[in-house]
Structure of Peptide hydrolase:
Amino acid sequence: MFTPIPTLLIALLTLLPRPALSYTTLSPSSLSRIPSGGSDFDPTTGALLAPLLIPRVPGTPGSAAARRHFVDFFASRLPRWTVATHNSTATTPATGATLVSFTNVILRRDPPWAAPGDVARLTLVAHYDTLYRPEGFVGAVDSAASCALLMHVARSVDAALTRRWEAIGEGDGLGGEEVGVQILLLDGEEAWESWTEEDSLYGSRALAEEWDIVRHEGVSVFETPLKAISLFVLLDLLGAADPSVSSYFENTHWAYQKLSRAERRLREQGLLESKPKTGRFLPDEERHSFSRGYVLDDHVPFLQRGVDVLHVIPTPFPAVWHTMEDDGAHLDVPTLRDWARIMTVFVAEWMDLGDYLEPAPGDGQEEYRERDEL
Ligand SMILES: [Zn+2]
């Protein structure tokens, strides 16, 4: 059936933000350029991970040391990322009337020419706090490993982002939606006594509430920072051997499929180290039916406000979960490095970096581009 499109509608359509989001599949040679993090994920000596394997209870010196680790890394190694903190306070059932402070760390890279309210941000999230009890708990899979992994992802795409943005300049000059990336390292995910709506998710609840209220200045594509989140990718409980991560949300199954495909292609090219008993970390690439259940975690306050969520958490949880065994010695480093590769591919594809990654030694300039417009 042919329906004439009124001229007014065409005029309105041209005023809408241009569709800036394209997800470009990496070529086989680009996949082989994806770094693994190497010894940086060593639990005792690794530059990214080892400093985090201490108790990080909110409001304690360990928590401050973890934050310093993040901030120093970005300030010294990745100075193009903006670093901000978001603070809130709350009482907890374990600490009585004393207010505990919770500090989220926000790391962001937007196109250099873009106004903050015009950037749709791929948002990568993990929590860095640890359980109040048992005393001395260091939370390696919960979630130091995920924090280290996100630092690695930022480092791995940083130069390519610079090259891409220098190459494309200010796009077509019409303004509209731009694409950026941000990392949220959240505080206060854990319950202090037992999980309730009030005793959990202290940092993410405060941040989601604030980002729902504050308005971008002037005329902007996105009214609030919350609306500027294109996808909320939450990593949790990663780093143990043999993980199996399901697709929990039908509306973001397409993103899960991209992540699962990244794993499959890396495995097919022999670029992953682990041999999981589960076969795949992300087995649901072809899945078509969904259960209603999902795991309560930092995404909930965002999900409740309409943000699209991809939750990368294994079920069942690792056997060491919430025990003193959740330490560096119980991590499976090859699994962690494989997650680092898979997530880096996902982010590089999202940010359309295929042409801008560092060539591996002896790498040919292979032309292979397959573009999925969203
Ligand atoms: Zn936990």
